[in-house]
């Protein structure tokens, strides 16, 4: 907008009966931007910044709502407890395992799905929908549905195994198999998001590159590794960051599939935070656990950002 | 706003689906478990009939003790005023009183804490927290050994006195009978009942979990032995392979369809065994005190449920009145006869009407009186979780008994510091 | 423009079938399950198609629990947080797309950083805050966090759409006596309707899917959302799969219809939000 237009408009605005909005026009960009960004800022301050401060503060308190005692300063006690708590460590490692398995897993499966969806079928909408349905399905629903798939007597997974003459598995009766089930479910659920992002990336790659490669006599597989993959890097990097951060927060699928069992073997960090906060009302300890998860997320984000910067 | 009306309409629609509250009559909301509903409905109906203007509505939240505790945690943290009276497992008054979720009843009872003298001492003890009456006892409970009279008679076996006798007896009968007959059904799912499962043999060795001041007195050997004992039942084929999934009512159902020789159960099951339409064990059920470990004493787990008045109730006066009624001798007798629920009054165990309906109550008083209470602490939820998830993990073969016991100790140490 | 890894028609058809099966099978299987009777469900080897389809499970799904209320709660919370998100994000996006800001880069990075913020970690303080404000078990307890969850991504989507609208149009409107805010709502927003819509769907699905906060802050039956209601639903003694399946179908249908109609917008929103972010 040119200054002349703006000046003229401001003058006109002042001449009309000035509503409140008219007065906004007197502001410079800075002041207007302040008002426009204010709601976002207020929300972020109220729901992110203030809670983060309170979280860190609470993690140094001994505060249990069931004890009836007022909060008291506990120093590093919650953190010392955390490092000595076997369930914290198992939930920490479960979270790491789920992340390390399902993020690359979803990437590989998502890549395959995206390549298929990129085939010029006539019914494109159906294929796109096939990617959107798993994406839009609530994680909790997904957990319930797959819990039924893996049910030991009447689930379809064991049914297929039985029909193939293979031994069946009581999936939720052992840590290892329950983890396999949780990871498979998570990969199914999240690969479609990966596929959608990769698909968009695929569609931005100029065809001429492939034609040139064709002339050079490069096969399809070589084309994939020399053209497709490098050009997809930015899209993949972004998808990986998002996916990793959400994988660290894994809660819905294990909660609906195993509730953490057998024992506490499939409890994830997010589940343990919720349990201490809501079931035990031990807010001090729950806060310390949340700070641990916060730190973990930060480390991962910084790691990714550095990797992207180095790659760029 | 254009959509305001639509939203309002939709809201009205949603609200109208909630149970309607009669504004003129006083509605008291009672929170309790969802089983035995017919029995309790009859009790409530009777009270409504004699107290015009009082309307009792039941809110259920979960079928097991720990599910209900979780539900109540959020409700009470939210200072929810829609619950007036709360049914509490015997392990909970300490926590609820400490958190000030239930109102102290001293001023509303004749004689304050003395009011509780009428009840079995275990329950007057459990319901007085820091000199205040926190809740009134509803019913007593103690775990028992249920056995198939017919099968034991057939093989000329006396009810076992020790767990190893039980194991041998079960194996013998299982071998002869064949099929999928379970030797022993007990609770291995990660539910409150699994806390008792762990503590039964532990207590039987003579050790306690906490001392009088609530300090942890964990005995590692007794804990390992307890976990080994239960895991041994699974490994020997006495208990079913899926025992890690078995909750209290699964045991009741398995036993009821004749699929188990022995069962560790609570007395409520008796009524089902005798009177349910689908029972396969009518008149074939014997009940004795639980076995002991070798060289130990028989020990059982004190259960029981209490009625507390919510501190956030808007109808405290009426709620207290109803609570007194629900904890009265009259109701205790009624639910003993019609639901085989243990009375909280000593003399009812030998009451003629009661023993006519449930003859074995006559021998039960000493068992209940010697029952062990689980630790009394405001942080009981965590204590329970540490124990029951360990039992579950050991029974699922996830953790060895030794590992499980040391993990349990580490977790309990943090909680009961 | 495109790259095909696979050649040959049969291979492509097989690949296509795999994709469709992967996407639709779980939902389809739940539909089948929801039409079976409890006894048919307990047959081995299991029946794939219901031999004697029944709608009884749907009736039970609505009568055994207040499913309609859960559905309403989910919709109400999702719609409110979507509306709030769009309002807040539109203002912010306009400022970022149109105004000369000194800290534009910084503000954008803050928004991107927030979009990857692990909301789970805030469970304890949110629980404390809602508790002291008396908002546990209330619609607001979820609407506010869900809005924060969606504002960053929606802002990014809207910025990219606003960038695509010629500034001349606005200037012209302002010459005609429109205020700048007026121009925003009369010219920019309508012209970027696809973008606003896209952002709206993202916000809606975010809110519709959320489980942990809904489970932790609103567990009272009156305020349960659909995922919480269905997960906490337990029959007297067993896990009633047919009824749960019916409830799941009820929960899947609204969003399935939404994305079926607006799939192109959803895809473009996901990718702009994702790739630009």
UniProtKB/TrEMBL annotation, chain A:
Assigned keywords, A-Z: Cell membrane, Membrane, Transmembrane, Transmembrane helix, Transport
Transmembrane segments: 32-53, 60-79, 91-117, 129-150, 170-188, 231-251, 283-305
Compartments where found: Cell membrane
Ranges where the ABC transmembrane type-1 domain occurs: 92-304
GO CC, alphabetical: plasma membrane
Signal peptide: none
GO biological process: transmembrane transport
Main localisation: membrane
Domain of life: Bacteria
Family of this protein: Belongs to the binding-protein-dependent transport system permease family.
Name of protein: Sugar ABC transporter permease
InterPro entries reported in the protein's UniProt record: MetI-like (IPR000515), MetI-like_sf (IPR035906)
Species in which this protein is naturally found: Pararhizobium mangrovi
Topology versus the membrane: Multi-pass membrane protein
TrEMBL record, chain B:
A UniProt-annotated Pfam family: SBP_bac_1
Principal cellular location given in the protein's record: periplasm
Signal peptide: 1-25
Swiss-Prot/TrEMBL keywords: Periplasm, Signal, Transport
Source taxon at top rank: Bacteria
Gene Ontology annotations for the cellular component aspect, listed alphabetically: periplasmic space
Subcellular localization: Periplasm
InterPro entries referenced in this protein's UniProt entry, alphabetically: Bact_solute-bd_prot1 (IPR050490), SBP (IPR006059)
PANTHER family: ABC TRANSPORTER PERIPLASMIC-BINDING PROTEIN YCJN-RELATED, ARABINOSE-BINDING PROTEIN-RELATED
Similarity field: Belongs to the bacterial solute-binding protein 1 family.
Protein's name in the database: ABC transporter substrate-binding protein
From TrEMBL, chain C:
InterPro entries: BP-dep_ABC_trans_perm, MetI-like, MetI-like_sf
TM spans (from-to): 12-32, 67-94, 106-127, 139-162, 183-208, 241-262
Record carries keyword Amino-acid biosynthesis: no
tRNA-binding found in the keyword field: no
UniProt entry keywords in alphabetical sequence: Cell membrane, Membrane, Transmembrane, Transmembrane helix, Transport
Localization per record: Cell membrane
PROSITE patterns, A to Z: ABC_TM1
Bilayer topology annotation: Multi-pass membrane protein
Leader peptide range in chain numbering: none
Major localisation: membrane
Domain ABC transmembrane type-1: from-to ranges: 71-262
CDD domains assigned: TM_PBP2
Pfam families named in the record: BPD_transp_1
A biological process term (GO) from this entry: transmembrane transport
Cellular component GO terms, alphabetical: plasma membrane
PANTHER family documented for this protein: INNER MEMBRANE ABC TRANSPORTER PERMEASE PROTEIN YCJP, MALTOSE TRANSPORT SYSTEM PERMEASE-RELATED
Family: Belongs to the binding-protein-dependent transport system permease family.
Protein name: Carbohydrate ABC transporter permease
Organism of origin: Pararhizobium mangrovi
């Amino acid at each position: 907008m040119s200054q002349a237009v703006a000046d003229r408009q401001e003058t006109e605005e002042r001449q009309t009966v000035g509503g409140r909005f008219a007065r906004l026009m007197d502001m410079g960009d800075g002041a207007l931007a302040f008002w426009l960004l204010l709601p976002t800022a207020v929300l972020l301050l109220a729901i992110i910044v203030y809670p983060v401060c309170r979280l860190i503060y609470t993690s140094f308190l001994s505060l249990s709502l069931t004890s009836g005692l007022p909060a008291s300063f506990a120093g590093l006690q919650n953190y010392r407890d955390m490092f000595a708590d076997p369930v914290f460590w198992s939930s920490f490692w479960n979270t790491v395992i789920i992340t390390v398995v399902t993020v690359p897993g979803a990437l590989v499966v998502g890549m395959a799905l995206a390549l298929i969806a990129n085939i010029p079928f006539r019914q494109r909408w159906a294929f796109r929908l096939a990617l959107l349905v798993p994406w839009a399905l609530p994680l909790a629903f997904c957990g319930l549905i797959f819990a039924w798939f893996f049910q030991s007597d009447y689930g379809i997974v064991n049914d297929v195994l039985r029909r193939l003459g293979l031994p069946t598995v009581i999936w939720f009766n052992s840590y290892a198999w329950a983890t396999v089930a949780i990871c498979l479910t998570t990969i199914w659920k999240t690969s479609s998001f990966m596929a959608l992002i990769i698909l968009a990336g695929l569609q931005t790659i100029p065809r001429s590159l492939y034609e040139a490669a064709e002339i050079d006599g490069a096969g399809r597989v070589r084309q994939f590794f020399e053209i497709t993959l490098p050009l997809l890097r930015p899209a993949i990097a972004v998808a990986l960051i998002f996916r990793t951060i959400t994988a660290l927060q894994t809660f819905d699928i294990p909660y609906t599939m195993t509730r953490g069992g057998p024992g506490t073997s499939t409890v994830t960090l997010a589940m343990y935070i919720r349990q201490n906060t809501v079931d035990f009302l031990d807010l001090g300890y729950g806060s310390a656990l949340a700070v641990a998860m916060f730190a973990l997320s930060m480390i991962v984000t910084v790691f990714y950002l550095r990797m992207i910067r180095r790659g760029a | 706003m254009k959509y305001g009306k639509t939203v309002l309409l939709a809201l009205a629609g949603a609200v109208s689906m909630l149970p309607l509250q009669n504004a003129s009559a006083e509605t008291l909301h009672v929170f309790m478990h969802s089983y035995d509903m017919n029995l309790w409905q009859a009790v409530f109906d009777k009270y409504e009939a004699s107290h015009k203007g009082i309307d009792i509505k039941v809110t259920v939240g979960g079928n097991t003790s720990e599910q209900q505790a979780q539900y109540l945690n959020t409700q009470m943290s939210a200072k929810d005023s829609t619950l007036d009276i709360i049914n509490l497992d015997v392990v909970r008054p300490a926590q609820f009183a400490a958190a000030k979720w239930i109102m102290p009843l001293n001023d509303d009872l004749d004689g304050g804490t003395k009011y509780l003298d009428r009840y079995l001492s275990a329950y007057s003890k459990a319901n007085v927290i820091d000199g205040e009456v926190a809740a009134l006892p509803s019913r007593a409970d103690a775990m028992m050994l249920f056995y198939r009279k017919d099968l034991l008679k057939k093989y000329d076996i006396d009810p076992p006195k020790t767990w190893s006798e039980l194991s041998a007896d079960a194996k013998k009968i299982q071998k002869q009978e064949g099929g999928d007959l379970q030797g022993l059904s007990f609770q291995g799912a990660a539910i409150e009942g699994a806390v008792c499962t762990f503590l039964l043999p532990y207590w039987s060795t003579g050790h306690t979990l906490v001392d009088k001041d609530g300090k942890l007195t964990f005995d590692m050997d007794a804990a390992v032995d307890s976990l080994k004992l239960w895991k041994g039942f699974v490994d020997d084929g006495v208990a079913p392979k899926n025992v890690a999934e078995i909750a209290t009512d699964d045991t009741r159902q398995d036993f009821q369809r004749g699929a188990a020789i022995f069962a560790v159960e609570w007395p409520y099951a008796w009524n089902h065994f005798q009177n349910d339409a689908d029972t396969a064990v009518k008149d074939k059920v014997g009940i004795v005190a639980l076995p002991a470990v070798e060289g130990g004493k028989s020990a059982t787990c004190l259960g029981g449920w209490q009625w507390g008045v919510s501190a956030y109730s808007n109808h405290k006066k009426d709620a207290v009145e109803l609570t007194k009624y629900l904890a009265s001798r009259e109701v205790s007798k009624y639910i003993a006869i019609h639901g085989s629920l243990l009375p909280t009054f000593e003399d009812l165990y030998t009451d003629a009407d009661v023993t006519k309906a449930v003859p074995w109550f006559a021998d039960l008083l000493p068992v209940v009186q010697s029952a062990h209470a689980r630790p009394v602490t405001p942080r009981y939820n965590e204590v329970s979780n540490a124990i029951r998830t360990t039992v579950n993990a050991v029974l699922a073969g996830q953790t060895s008994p030794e590992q499980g016991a040391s993990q349990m100790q580490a977790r309990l140490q943090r909680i009961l510091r | 423009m495109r790259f095909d890894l696979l050649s040959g028609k049969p291979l492509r058809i097989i690949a296509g079938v795999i994709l469709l099966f992967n996407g639709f099978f779980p939902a389809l299987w739940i539909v089948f399950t929801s039409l079976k009777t409890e006894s048919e469900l307990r047959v081995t080897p299991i029946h794939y198609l219901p031999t004697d389809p029944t709608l009884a499970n749907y009736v039970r799904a609505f009568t055994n629990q207040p499913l309609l209320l859960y559905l309403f709660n989910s919709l109400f919370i999702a719609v409110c947080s979507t509306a709030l998100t769009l309002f807040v994000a539109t203002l912010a996006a306009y400022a970022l797309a149109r105004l000369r800001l000194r800290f534009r880069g910084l503000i954008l990075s803050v928004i991107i950083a927030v979009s990857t913020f692990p909301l789970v970690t805030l469970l304890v303080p949110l629980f404390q805050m809602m508790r002291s404000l008396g908002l546990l078990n209330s619609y607001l307890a979820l609407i506010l966090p869900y809005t924060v969850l969606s504002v960053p991504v929606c802002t990014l989507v809207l910025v990219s759409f606003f960038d695509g609208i010629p500034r001349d149009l606005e200037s012209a409107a302002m010459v005609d006596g429109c205020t700048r805010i007026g121009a925003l709502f009369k010219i920019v927003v309508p012209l970027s309707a696809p973008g606003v819509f896209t952002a709206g769907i993202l916000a809606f699905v975010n809110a519709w899917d959320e489980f942990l906060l809904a489970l932790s802050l609103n567990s009272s039956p009156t305020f349960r959302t659909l995922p919480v209601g269905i997960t906490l639903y337990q029959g007297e003694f067993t896990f009633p799969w047919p009824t749960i399946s019916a409830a799941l179908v009820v929960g899947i249908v609204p969003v399935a219809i939404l994305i079926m109609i607006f799939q192109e917008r959803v895809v473009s929103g996901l990718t702009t939000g994702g790739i630009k972010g």
